[in-house]
Write a sequence for this structure.
């Protein structure tokens, strides 16, 4: 992936998480279902091809042991039923955008007593779903969990977050074809 594109996606994620934190009274731990949906919907409304994806993600902890959200035959600490993220499609390139790791690492440390791997950045932006530090795989059977959680969120909050992504992506990804 081109560095300029990755940098602009990171700026978009930072703006999104700043907005999210300003709108919520509590730190948004456990909100991947909201983040993945809003990121995808905002990109779609800005004219890009994107979608919300739910499935399994495996992160490595500080000792390179697996931390699992979802269903997996891999050994490790399972701390979540599912995980949701956003996928952006550009020509033949598929880019995972997951700003929720910023909050996952807090939950991993504070609620599960495991130290996250310091080599994983707050915002995971990658065109490779299977890396050593994180592995993403879609599982359609887990969509219901994400959808059910999203239904409990106030629509005005969702709309404000979607608008943030739409506006940021319209500004930062103006000529997306130059990035690929």
């Amino acid at each position: 992936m081109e560095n300029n594109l990755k940098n602009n996606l990171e700026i978009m994620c930072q703006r999104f998480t700043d907005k999210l934190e300003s709108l919520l009274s509590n730190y948004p731990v456990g909100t991947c279902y909201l983040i993945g949906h809003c990121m995808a919907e905002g990109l779609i409304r800005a004219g890009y091809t994107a979608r919300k994806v739910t499935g399994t993600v495996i992160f490595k902890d500080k000792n390179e042991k697996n931390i699992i959200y979802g269903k997996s035959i891999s050994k490790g600490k399972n701390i979540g039923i599912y995980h949701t993220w956003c996928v952006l499609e550009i020509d033949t390139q598929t880019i995972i955008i997951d700003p929720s790791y910023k909050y996952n690492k807090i939950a991993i440390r504070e609620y599960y007593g495991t130290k996250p791997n310091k080599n994983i950045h707050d915002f995971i932006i990658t065109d490779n779903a299977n890396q050593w530090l994180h592995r993403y795989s879609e599982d359609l059977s887990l969509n219901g969990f994400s959808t059910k959680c999203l239904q409990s969120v106030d629509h005005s909050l969702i709309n404000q977050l979607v608008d943030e992504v739409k506006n940021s992506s319209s500004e930062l990804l103006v000529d997306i074809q130059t990035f690929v």
